[in-house]
Structures are given as C-alpha cells and as structure tokens.
C-alpha cells in the first residue's frame, strides 16, 4: 500500500488524482507527488527500513508506488565511501563519496527508472519511452527488458558510442536524432501528445520518476548512522535530482527518522545543498552568479554529455533549494573535469564518468572559495561510471611505457637504477 495522497501543482497547489499526469491543467505548472505523512510516520521506523531489501525498495513506503513486485534490477544502496585522501588533497575534513557508479547500468538513473517503470506498469502501460542524454537510455532499455515491456528511446546522434551500444543491446528501439538533447526533448514532448498509451519516463510519468532521487538522501542518512550531513554537492542536468535530494532530507526530519541539526533548526532546509555544472552548459550556475530569478537557456558544449541540458526543466527549483539552504552553484571547465576524474581515481579508487568529474571539480572549487568548509560533514554525489565516457580522455591516459620483456627495460621505464634501496 502506498501513502500517496495526490499530485499537487508546484505553482498553484491544485491537487489531482495520482494518474499519468505531469502538468497542472490550470496553470501548466509541474506536478509533484504528495503523501499522507501522518499515516506514513505512524508506520515507518528505522528498523522497518533496515529490515528491507539492499536496494532502493527498502524505502518503498516513501515512494509513490505499491512496492510489491517492483520492476527492479537492484538499483541503489550503493556504498558511501569515506574519502580521507581526497579530503586531504582538497583541504577538507569529513568527506564522503556516494558511489553511484555501482548501479545496475552504471548510473544513478536506475533509481528513477525503477520507480518510473514500476508505476508505468501499475498504470497499465505496455511501452516505456524517453528522451535521454545517455544514462537514462541505458536504464530504460534495461528495465523495460526486465519488465517485458517494449522500449522506445531517443538520444542525440552525437552520443558516446558506449552509451549507444549499452542501450541497443537490450533489444528495444533506439533512435539517434540529429540535434541536441533539447531538440530530442522537444520531439519527445510532441510524441507524448500523439502516444498517450506510452509511458514517457521524463514526460507523463515524470512526477513518479523524479521521486526515485530522494533515495540518494535516504541512503546517505542511513549510512551515516541515521545522521544528516552538513553539506552535499550534487550535479545538475535538469535539476530534478538536486531538488529531490533536498526533499528527501526534509522528509526524514518531518518523519522523525533523523534529527535536524541544532544549528540549522532556524532554516527551512536541514542540509546545505550545492550544485555542480560544466562551464560548457551552466545555465543554473550563471543564474546563481548573477543573482537572477530566471534560468536563461544556453546551447550546450561540454564533454559532460550526461549533464548537457541547456534548458533545464527544474533549473529554477534547483536554484530555490540552493539559495534556501545556503549552498552555491559552481561550474568547471572540461579540463578541470578530466583532472578531477583522475584525482578521484588516484585518491579513492573510484572511476567516475564526466558527470562525476564535474561534481569533484566543483567540490574542489567550492572548497577553495570557502563555501564548502573543513568543519562540515560533506557528501559528494558521484553519479555515473567512468567506463561510459572513456572517449572523453582520447589517448591522454595510457601505459607509462611500452617495454621489451627484460628487467633492465622495466627499471629504465620506471626511472630506477637496476638496484633500488628498499623504502
Ligand atoms: C541525469 C544525470 C544527472 C542529473 O540529472 P537531473 O536531470 O539533474 O536530475 C547526474 N548525473 C548523471 C550521471 C546523470 O546521468
Ligand atoms: Zn497549477
């Protein structure tokens, strides 16, 4: 049984029954899932959650579907890794990396898709569709296969070859569209009005899809021993994930599952939330820097293709969260992104895709500026696996040297004399 009360308009607060609906019929504002927190709070305990499965469905009570028999490949409950060596390099203290590279299809998108397709199946849909910058494509194709649904996935034709292959392999329809993600998204919105019998995960079932990102907050709190971090750094594409991480932390406080930190009781956000963007696609960072109320669309040009949304649907709401909680939005160059991927790999043994590089490079920049502080408990969300974006490196990372199979050649390549004093 789910605790969903209604879909509620984020602009005018009108309520709708929880069906396949994403925009307010009155003001066209986006709809969000509302719950009966009183009933939920009476039933939900830390113990009940801990006894659940080792994936996001342990938080099924906080999700907008009946969790019996979800469409699942086991998304979530990924490691929260204490990152002391990275912290030392960045001049930080208690730093954690949420390692979402370790999801079934290698990105955090599995969290949102398992919720979206479970709901889609519940609503009677037979086809799952989406517009994607790559990771969503992988995840929709895989989960549709798992559910025995047909999938129709649309992506920009310049996508990384790996993401094409790892979508196509699941046997659904994959359409490479000549244009940017924003063109693909517009096309998808048009398609959605023609095919109301298809579940478009980021259009007509978007309110449900988006809720899956709350589990990134739930897991961090549980893995810290039912404690909130002080500050989190989150990558921004559409901005949905960032807004839902904030919602997740607020729900935990509301339900009494964690205590609000004493020093933050007077603010309306229990955890500071900062956003990360690539300089080649930084509409939210630009609005933040300018103190603007409006997110102006940009044309995206960055190696961080999974974040390359020039016209972010939730950009304004992300900005609102960052301002309310006392965070910031930073942006970093592609060169910094590649350096940060190598820094994370070298210090913690985690290989992130370009979006993870954006997060770590932005964390470094915010630490330099004193926005992220050494006395805070900090969590950086690393949301995708490096094997997906190896192309971004070209030939700049490779073997130290090619040597003959002779010990002298090895020593020479390593810059050692034949005999080295033991260290
Ligand atoms: C989609 C994506 C994000 C951010 O998604 P939002 O649209 O902002 O919710 C972050 N990281 C990766 C790897 C992604 O694929
Ligand atoms: Zn409305």
Please characterize this protein's 3D structure.
It is a single chain. This protein has 15 helices and 13 strands. It has 423 residues and is α/β, with parallel strands linked by helices. The chain has a domain at 80-106 and 211-393: 3-Layer(aba) Sandwich (Rossmann fold), CATH 3.40.50. The chain has a 6-stranded mixed β-sheet with strand order 4-5-13-10-11-12, with helices on both faces. The chain has a 4-stranded parallel β-sheet with strand order 8-7-6-9, with helices on both faces. A hairpin with a 5-residue loop joins β1 (4-9) and β2 (15-16). Bound molecules: pyridoxal-5'-phosphate and zinc ion. Residues 107-109, 135, 235-241, 306-307, 353, 355, 383-384 line the site of pyridoxal-5'-phosphate.
Q: What descriptive keywords fit this protein?
A:
Rossmann fold, 15 helices, binds pyridoxal-5'-phosphate, single chain, four-stranded parallel β-sheet, six-stranded mixed β-sheet, globular, alpha/beta, 423 residues, binds zinc ion
In short:
The chain is α/β, with parallel strands linked by helices.
């Amino acid at each position: 049984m789910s605790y969903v009360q209604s879909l509620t308009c984020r602009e005018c607060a009108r309520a709708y029954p929880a069906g396949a609906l994403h925009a307010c019929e009155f003001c066209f504002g986006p709809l969000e899932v509302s719950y009966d927190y009183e009933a939920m709070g009476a039933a939900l305990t830390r113990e009940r959650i801990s006894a659940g499965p080792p994936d996001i469905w342990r938080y099924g009570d906080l999700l907008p579907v009946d969790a019996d028999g979800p469409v699942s490949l086991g998304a979530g409950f990924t490691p929260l890794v204490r990152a002391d060596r990275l912290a030392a390099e960045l001049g930080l203290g208690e730093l954690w990396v949420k390692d979402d590279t370790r999801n079934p299809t290698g990105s955090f998108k599995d969290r949102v898709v398992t919720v979206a397709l479970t709901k889609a199946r519940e609503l009677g849909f037979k086809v799952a569709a989406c517009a994607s910058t790559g990771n969503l494509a992988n995840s929709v194709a895989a989960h549709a296969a798992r559910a025995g649904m047909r999938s129709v996935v649309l992506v920009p034709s310049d996508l990384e070859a790996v993401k094409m292959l790892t979508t196509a392999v699941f046997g659904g329809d994959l359409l490479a569209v000549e244009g940017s993600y924003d063109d693909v998204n517009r096309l998808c919105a048009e398609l959605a009005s023609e095919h109301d019998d298809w579940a478009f995960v980021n259009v007509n079932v978007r309110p449900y899809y988006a809720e899956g990102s709350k589990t990134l907050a739930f897991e961090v709190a549980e893995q810290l021993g039912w404690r909130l971090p002080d500050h989190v750094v989150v990558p921004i594409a559409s901005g949905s994930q960032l807004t839902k991480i904030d919602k997740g932390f607020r729900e935990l406080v509301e339900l009494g599952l964690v205590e609000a930190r004493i020093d933050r009781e007077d603010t309306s956000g229990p955890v500071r939330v900062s956003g990360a963007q690539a300089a080649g696609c930084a509409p939210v960072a630009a609005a933040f820097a300018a103190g603007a109320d409006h997110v102006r669309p940009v044309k995206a040009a960055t190696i961080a293709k999974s974040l390359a949304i020039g016209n972010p649907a939730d950009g304004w709401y992300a900005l609102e969260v960052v301002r309310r909680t006392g965070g910031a939005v930073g942006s970093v160059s592609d060169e910094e992104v590649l350096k940060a991927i190598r820094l994370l790999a070298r210090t913690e043994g985690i290989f992130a895709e370009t979006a993870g590089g954006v997060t770590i490079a932005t964390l470094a920049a915010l630490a330099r500026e004193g926005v992220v502080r050494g006395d805070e408990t900090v969590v950086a969300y690393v949301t995708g696996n490096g094997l997906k974006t190896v192309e971004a490196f070209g030939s700049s990372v490779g073997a130290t040297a090619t040597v003959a199979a002779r010990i002298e050649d090895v020593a020479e390549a390593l810059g050692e004399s034949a005999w080295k004093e033991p260290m």
